[in-house]
Write a structure and sequence with these properties.
563 residues; alpha/beta; Purple Acid Phosphatase, chain A, domain 2; Translation Initiation Factor IF3; 7-stranded mixed beta sheet; 19 strands
Amino acid sequence: KIHCDCCFCRDDEDTFKILIATDIHLGYLEKDAIRGNDTYDTLNEILECAKTNQADFILLGGDLFHENKPSRRCLHSCITMLRKYCMGDSPIHFNILSDQRVNFNTTQFPWVNYQDENLNISIPVFSVHGNHDDPTGAEGLCALDLLSASGLINHFGHSQSVESIEISPILMQKGNTKLALYGLGSIPDERLYRMFVNNKVTMLRPKEDQDKWFNLFTIHQNRSKHGPTNYIPEQFLDDFLDLVVWGHEHECLITPTRNEQQLFYVTQPGSSVATSLSPGEAAKKHIGLLKVKGHKMNMQKIPLKTVRQFFIQDVVLADYEDLFTPDTPQVTKKVEDLCYAKVTEMLEQAERERLGCPLTPEKPLIRLRVDYSGGFETFSTSRFSQKFVDRVANPKDIIHFLRRREQKEDIKVTVDYGKLLKTSAVEGLRVEDLVKQYFEAAEQVTQRQLSLLTEQGMGKAIQEFVDKDEKDAIQELITYQLEKTQRHLQARGVTTEQDIDAEVKRLRDSKKNTTEEDNEIREAMNRAKAHRLERGDDSVDAGISDEFADVNMDSDEGSYLSQ
C-alpha cells in the first residue's frame, strides 16, 4: 500500500512531479474595482510555480472558471497565460500507455495535447470540470472544451451517462514509475450518491501488474455532509486508490490525511480565492507539488503569495457584560466602538503578516460576525463601513449581524409534510432542496420529535415520495419510528423527561448506518406501499427492496478489468 514519505523524493528519471490546484474560479468579481485582478494574478502565480519547479504536468480539480460562460476577458487571460507558461521546447519525460480515445472521448482530437504534432507543449495540463464550469446545452460542452479544442489543456473525467459511470484511467509511465490517473467531473451530489449506492460506478484497472500502479483519483463533489445524500462519503470510493485529490471544498486541507477504513490518502487543496466570507475561506491558501516514485509519495505545500488576506472573527455581545448590557445608556454606541476596535485589530494583524510579501494585495478582506441576541440592537453598517473604505477590500460587508434562534417552549406547530413536499415537487425542486425544506419545517416542531428520525431514513422516505409518488412514505416513517420508540421507552421503564431525551438520542445513534436501520426503513416503506394498495392505487412501480442492497465497498479484481 501507499507510503506517504516526507523525505524520499530525490528528483530523478523515475519521479513524477505534479503541480496540484483546485477551484481557481478565474473571473470571480472581475468587474470589482479592488478585487477584479485577484484570480488572474493567482493563476499566473500557479502556472509560474509549475514552470519554476519543472513539473511534469499540472492537475486541476475543477472550477477553473467561476462562470459557466466566462467573459471574453476571462477566456483571453486564461489562454494567454496557458500559452505563456505551458508551451515551449522543454521535453516531456512521461508516456501515455492507455487508449486515449477512451480517456479523451469528448473531443475531435482524442489524444494528449503534447503528442499533437502541430503543438509544442512543455507542461501538459489535465483538468476535470467543476460545478461552476460544467457542461451544458444539447452538445454538452463547457469552457474547458474550448481550451481542449485549442490544444491548451486535456479535459478528462467527463461522464456522458446519467445512469451509470465507467471511469477509465489515463495510464502514464515515467521511468519505472507507473501512474493511473482517474478523474470524475462534477455531477449533482445526490445523483452520484445514488449511483454509488446502486453499484453503478465502476473504476477500471489495468489488466496487468495491478499492484505496480500508483492510483490517483481527482473528484469534484461535496466532501462535508450537507444532507443525507448531498455529499459523497469517502467510504464509497474504491480501496485500491492511493491518493484522492478532492476539489469543490474551499478550505485548504492540503496535507494528505489517511482514511483508516479504505487505507488511501485524501488531499483537499482548497480554493485559491475566497468566494465567500466564511471561516473555511480564512485558512491560508496553498497549492501542492506532488512527487510520486513507485508507491511512495510526498506532498510539498506551496503557499500562494498573491492571494488577498482574509480575517474573520465572531463577537457575541452577551459575553461583554462588564462593558455593557442592553439597558446601558448609549449601548449602541458602545457596541459600535467595540466592533471598531475588533476590525482595527484584524487590520493591524494583516499589516504585520504582509511585511516582506510585496505580491500580497494591500487591502485585506475583513469580516466581523456580531451575535446581538439577548435584546441588543443593530447599528448602521453602511455608516460603520465608511470608516474603513480606504483600508479594506470589502467595505460594504465588513459587519454581519446574526441572532441565535430562541427556543420557544410549549408551542405546538403542526407541519403538513405531505403538502409541503408535494408542492415542492410540483415546482420542480431537486430532492436535496426537499430535504432542506423538510428540516427547516421540522425545526418549528421540536428537536425532540426530529430526534426520532435518522437522516438516512428521512432521505429514503423523501426519495420514495418524489421518485415513486409514495404519498404515505414520510408519514409512515414518522409513525413507525414513534411507535417503536414508545415501546422501547416502556420496556426500559424510562419516565423522567431528561432520561427520555437521553435514551431517545442513544437509541437513534445506535441504529445509524446499521442493518437494523435499513430493516426499519424497509418496513416503513412496505407499510406505505400497503396503504396505497388498500386504496386501490397500484400505479407505482413495485419492489423497493433492491435499493436497500448493501453497498459493496470491497474491490473486486475480476469486475474492474479494462476491456
